[in-house]
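From the methods appendix. Each design record in this collection lists the tokenized structure first, followed by the designed amino acid sequence. Records were kept in a plain field format so they could be parsed without special tools. The example shown here is representative of the layout used throughout.

RECORD:
FOLD TOKENS (180 positions):
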């Protein structure tokens, strides 16, 4: 096989201390995402979402939501909401978010958090509203970053919209995990 995953990922070990890797980071990410195991990709994305060198989790979730199709948006929101019980959803509704958020999530809170948002319902929300939901989910559900990383690992091309610096963090974690 002509592709050298280990050599590619090796470029990212040590992060920014090694300087910019040769080549296109987005292309490297594509190659790695196709060739690493799903759990290695998830771990890289989790490191990206937790990094001090990237925006906060909620901001990234909102940004990715804005780049996603309606089915992906529904999947993201359903992941974010799944770990919040009715009390956490209720406190979210009593806080910020606007009428659109209250209308959609209010139905879920009243239903005991058993319903799932449809693509049409999800696409009615804005990235800013999703950022509010993600921030709230992170406060009430310690496992949300890992679950969202797993979701994003299933949709690796969506993550490319975050740019080279963020992708470098994910690649560095994948290299570390691969034993590079």
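DESIGN:
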């Amino acid at each position: 096989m002509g592709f050298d995953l280990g050599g590619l990922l090796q470029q990212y070990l040590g992060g920014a201390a090694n300087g910019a890797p040769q080549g296109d980071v987005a292309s490297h990410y594509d190659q790695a995402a196709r060739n690493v195991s799903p759990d290695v990709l998830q771990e890289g994305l989790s490191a990206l979402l937790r990094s001090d060198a990237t925006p906060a989790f909620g901001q990234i979730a909102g940004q990715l939501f804005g780049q996603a199709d309606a089915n992906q948006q529904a999947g993201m929101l359903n992941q974010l909401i799944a770990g919040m019980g009715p009390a956490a959803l209720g406190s979210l509704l009593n806080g910020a978010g606007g009428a659109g958020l209250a209308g959609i999530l209010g139905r879920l809170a009243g239903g005991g958090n058993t319903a799932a948002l449809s693509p049409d319902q999800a696409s009615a929300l804005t990235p800013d509203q999703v950022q509010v939901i993600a921030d709230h989910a992170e406060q009430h559900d310690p496992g949300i970053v890992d679950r969202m990383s797993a979701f994003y690992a299933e949709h690796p091309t969506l993550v490319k919209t975050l740019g080279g610096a963020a992708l470098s963090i994910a690649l560095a974690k994948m290299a570390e995990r691969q034993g590079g």
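APPENDIX NOTE: The chain is about 70% helix and 0% strand.
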